[in-house]
Specification:
Layout: H1 11-28, H2 40-47, H3 51-63, E1 67-70, E2 74-77, H4 81-90, E3 97-104, H5 110-122, H6 125-128, E4 131-139, H7 146-162, E5 165-170, H8 179-192, E6 196-200, E7 214-218, H9 220-232, E8 240-243, H10 249-264, E9 274-276, H11 282-290, E10 295-298, H12 301-313, E11 319-321, E12 338-340, H13 343-359, E13 367-370, E14 373-375, H14 381-387
Parallel strand pairs: 3-4, 3-5, 5-6, 6-7, 7-13, 8-9, 8-10, 10-11
Antiparallel strand pairs: 1-2, 12-14
Domain HTH gntR-type: 12-80
InterPro entries: LacI/GalR-like_sensor, Peripla_BP_I, Tscrpt_reg_HTH_GntR, WH-like_DNA-bd_sf, WH_DNA-bd_sf
Keywords: DNA-binding, Transcription, Transcription regulation
Length: 388
């Protein structure tokens, strides 16, 4: 019957029908706990639905802890049973202590993102009966040497050991020549100390590779695709992508989503449309604008705000979108269209995954990629005016 779903139903209605059917199959035992779901291509054929519609239905199941996803492997039923029972069991036993480990090389826009995630985790401590230690939130400085970083992290880990920390929410080190070595050292020590680990935001290996650790964060590829599609607006044409030098791996994932959106629209991405540099440098920003860029996906809100500021000073009218929905994005002279990070969903799934990892240490690693929300403001005002 699903082959003949009314094509006039909205995308959301169809997505919900698919979600409910998959949920019913899981609850009835047709897809057993631990079983791999059919591939997305198979589900597309079965439900006569597009890949994005299937992906959104699957994302909803994943955000509810009913399934987990492993890069390159597929989607597996967890049915939320582990998480629910763990929370119930924990309320009747001792309160575990979890720690945060977030060693950052520099103070930049990522600080806003990580602070929001940590605060959202902390807000769940009473509901799920755990304590949260913040000792591992540290700013190390751009010039920090390998030895300085390791010594500082060793101090934090020793403190966590003395406090009987059971699990750590870890945001890996980036933007350092020895980042890979330092991350490996940290994870090896945590494993040796028998402390569970849940990675937040990004993996310790470059996408599309996947490590052995649980990972919870934004679906950055889907976010990049959605924001680019918003600018394309069914009118295939040039769209530019702008990011700062030495951007995070999550930015590369957003860029991949940007490229996929262009390809799906029948537009071949051009390397000259992708700009990597210091957007705070007026000459760099002006070169982007003089190259003919009119519709621009920025890697995050801070990059977008810098670019918009230069555009205002030069009386230039362009369409700009960003990511994260930071607290300043509504305070600009031209409020920013952006992609809102699902902080609360990231936090909830991180906590449930941590309890699951403690109770079932041999489970396969979870990768939970959560969709955010498109927030439309007037930084795309010029298109709206032209098309209205």
């Amino acid at each position: 019957m699903y082959k003949y779903l009314d094509q006039e139903q909205g995308k959301v209605a169809k997505q919900n029908l698919i979600y409910k059917e998959l949920l019913q199959r899981i609850q009835s035992g047709r897809y057993a706990n631990g079983q791999r779901l059919p591939t997305e291509n198979s589900l597309c054929q079965e439900f006569s639905a597009s890949r994005p519609t299937i992906a959104r239905a699957i994302a909803k199941l994943r955000s509810e802890g009913i399934i987990s996803s492993t890069q390159g492997s597929g989607h597996y039923v967890t049915n939320g049973q582990h998480s629910v029972s763990l929370v119930h069991m924990n309320t009747q036993s001792e309160t575990p202590t979890f720690g945060i480990l977030s060693p950052r090389m520099e103070e930049n826009e990522s600080g806003f993102l990580f602070e929001q995630i940590f605060r959202s985790i902390a807000s769940l401590s009473q509901k799920f009966n755990f304590d949260l230690a913040w000792n591992g939130v540290m700013f190390l400085g751009e010039g920090a040497t390998r030895k300085m970083i390791i010594n500082k992290i060793d101090e934090v880990l020793e403190r966590y050991l003395r406090s009987s920390v059971k699990g750590v929410f870890f945001i890996p080190v980036e933007f350092h020549p020895h980042a890979e070595e330092i991350n490996t050292m940290i994870l090896n020590k945590l494993r040796r100390y028998d402390i569970a680990v849940v990675l937040l935001d990004s993996d310790v290996v470059k996408w599309p590779q996947r490590s052995q650790w649980d990972l919870i964060g934004l679906d950055n590829v889907a976010a990049g695709l959605e924001m680019t599609n918003f600018l394309i607006n069914n009118q295939p044409r040039r769209i530019d992508f702008v990011c700062e030098q030495f951007s995070a791996n999550t930015v590369n994932m957003r860029k991949m989503g940007y490229r996929l959106a262009l390809l799906e629209a029948g537009v071949m991405p051009q390397t000259t449309w992708e700009h990597n540099g210091n957007v705070g440098d007026r000459l760099f920003a002006e070169r982007i604008l003089k190259s003919g860029a009119q519709d621009i996906v920025c890697a995050n809100d801070f990059t977008a705000m810098k670019l918009l500021s230069i555009c205002v000073q030069n009386n230039l009218k362009i369409n700009v979108v960003g990511f994260d929905d930071n607290e300043y994005s509504t305070l600009l002279g031209i409020p920013l269209t952006t992609y809102k990070q699902p902080f609360e969903d990231v936090a909830k799934n991180a906590v449930l995954t941590m309890f699951n990892r403690l109770e079932y240490p041999a489970d396969i690693a979870r990768q939970i990629q959560i969709r955010g929300e498109l927030i439309i403001r007037s930084s795309c005002h010029w298109r709206c005016s032209a098309e209205g």
